[in-house]
Write a structure and sequence with these properties.
Serine Threonine Protein Phosphatase 5, Tetratricopeptide repeat, transcription cis-regulatory region binding, 101 residues, ANK repeat, repeat, Ankyrin_rpt
Length: 101
């Protein structure tokens, strides 16, 4: 399931996020769908939370079924989040993963 950090990020509870990060919450924890808190913040277009997670060491290229936070931000047309992710080293080649089986 979702960790407290996942829930706080999804709900955009800034003070809770700050408190959890101050107490070393795992920024790269995954839920049952392999989503990290960074996937949520990128998908929601929250630039501030995205920056907070990245500054605490979140994996900018974490994959959820082949999709990175950058893909989620582009999909949602969240240009400010796209810029933040790129500044933190997001790989452009991770965007267009085609899952052929």
């Amino acid at each position: 399931g979702n960790t407290p950090l996942h829930i706080a990020v999804k709900s955009e509870y800034m003070q809770v996020i700050e408190t959890l990060l101050e107490h070393n919450a795992d920024v790269d924890s995954t839920n049952q769908w392999n989503r990290t808190p960074l996937h949520f913040s990128a998908e929601q277009g929250n630039e501030i939370i995205t920056e907070m997670l990245l500054n605490k060491g979140a994996n900018v290229n974490a994959k959820q079924d082949g999709l990175t936070p950058l893909y989620k931000a582009i999909e949602g047309n969240h240009i400010n989040v796209v810029q933040v992710l790129l500044e933190h080293g997001a790989h452009l080649d991770c965007i267009f993963i085609n899952k052929l089986t």
